[in-house]
């Protein structure tokens, strides 16, 4: 989801709701879930954690809980039995001027360098994964899995040929757009509405090139018309790396049941998202919005905060919760979306993409350490171990395997 204004980010995962989540698990249930989950390959398809790599006082090997800026680090990955996932190169949408496109190009290159610097600094703990089969091998070696994804293709606008470089540097998942329309596609949430009525000609060319390279396409954040274009044009399945169900909450970022069924028929996967604003209506009062804007100004903005300021931010938000309480998404709301998608398309077409470190998290599941609650819920539901394994990683890796096999068999001599 990253990067959003601080006033949006902090209001989505850190506030106390008006009513607590009704979903609770016993210690025995969580122990059983954790035991199973540690035997499985557990991947999250959308981790915005690389945004923290630019912070001088962030160390992924240290625990940073009780901090508004961090939900994923190695200690909490171990506690939550998270083996890794797709670490996102997120670039904020600029004004679409030439200067903005060049700045976005440079930002994307800097972010992938930061991911590689993290890998180089922690070679015994994290390892880059390049193929669908790499993840299991990395887990077997006792390390955490790092796939690289790109959320918002704006870094490629100035020079689309950079896609080949990103692929060589490890990119395996690509989304075209974010909060606002860009040169490749329409966003689901641009207030100006559709510009291209789906993918632009440049967007279709980018998707085709990604298919040739074996890069999986991610539809999250793009408009329904982009979804329809992908269904019509792609020879392989695609995923939604962090999305929810429109039937449960009618938000433009969510997917309706008819398209869920089309996605499944194509072989694709929707990864359940925990971004509260897409799960329930979290509309704030005018007073709260103003208070958050003042807090953002005082702390210097999300992008420039240190981890130390993240602790201050969490405390300040707790004070705002008392002064301006609001409806907040809960674990029960997450399971409503997750369960609905399972009902509609079944466990072979649903996965997990929590949006950690990008606004994700709900009351009752606030960071990566809480992930066994999802496994406990799936066990309560009666899903088999094989089905749970597919939801945690098998489904998304199947899509990657299909994309890579298609690219290999259709490579130009």
TrEMBL record:
GO terms for biological process: proteolysis. Residues 1-22 form the signal peptide. Transmembrane segments: none annotated. InterPro entries: Metal_Hydrolase, Pept_M19. One of its GO terms (molecular function) is metallodipeptidase activity. PANTHER family: DIPEPTIDASE, MICROSOMAL DIPEPTIDASE. This is Peptidase M19.
């Amino acid at each position: 989801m990253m990067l959003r204004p601080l006033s949006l980010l902090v209001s989505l995962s850190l506030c106390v709701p008006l009513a607590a989540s009704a979903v609770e698990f016993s210690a025995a249930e969580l122990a059983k879930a954790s035991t199973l989950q540690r035997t499985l390959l557990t991947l999250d398809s959308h981790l915005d954690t690389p945004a923290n790599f630019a912070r001088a006082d962030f160390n992924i090997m240290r625990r940073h809980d009780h901090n508004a800026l961090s939900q994923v680090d190695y200690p909490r990955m171990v506690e939550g039995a998270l083996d890794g996932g797709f670490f996102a190169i997120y670039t904020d949408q600029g004004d679409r001027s030439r200067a903005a496109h060049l700045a976005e190009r440079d930002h994307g290159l800097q972010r992938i360098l930061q991911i590689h610097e993290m890998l180089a600094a922690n070679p015994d703990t994290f390892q880059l994964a390049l193929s669908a089969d790499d993840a299991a091998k990395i887990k077997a070696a006792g390390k955490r899995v790092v796939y690289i994804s790109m959320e918002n293709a704006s870094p490629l606008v100035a020079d689309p040929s950079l896609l080949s470089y990103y692929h060589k540097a490890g990119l395996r998942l690509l989304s075209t757009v974010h909060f606002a329309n860009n040169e490749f596609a329409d966003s689901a949430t641009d207030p100006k509405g559709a510009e291209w009525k789906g993918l632009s000609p440049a967007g279709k060319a980018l998707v085709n090139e990604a298919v040739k390279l074996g890069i999986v396409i991610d539809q999250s954040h793009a408009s329904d018309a982009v979804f329809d274009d992908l269904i019509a044009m792609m020879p392989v399945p695609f995923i939604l790396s962090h999305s929810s169900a429109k039937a449960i909450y009618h938000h433009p970022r969510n997917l309706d049941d008819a398209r869920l069924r089309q996605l499944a028929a194509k072989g694709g996967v929707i990864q359940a998202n925990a971004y509260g604003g897409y799960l329930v209506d979290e509309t704030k009062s005018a007073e709260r919005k103003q208070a958050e804007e003042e807090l953002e100004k005082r702390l210097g903005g999300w992008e420039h905060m240190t981890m130390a300021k993240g602790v201050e931010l969490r405390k300040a938000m707790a004070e705002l919760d008392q002064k301006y309480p609001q409806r907040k998404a809960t674990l029960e709301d997450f399971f409503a979306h997750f369960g609905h998608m399972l009902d509609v398309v079944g466990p072979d077409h649903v996965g997990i993409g929590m949006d950690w470190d990008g606004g994700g998290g709900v009351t009752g599941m606030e960071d990566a350490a809480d992930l066994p609650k999802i496994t406990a819920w799936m066990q309560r539901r009666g899903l088999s171990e094989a089905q749970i394994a597919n939801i945690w990683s098998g489904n998304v890796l199947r899509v990657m395997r299909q994309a890579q096999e298609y690219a290999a068999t259709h490579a130009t001599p």
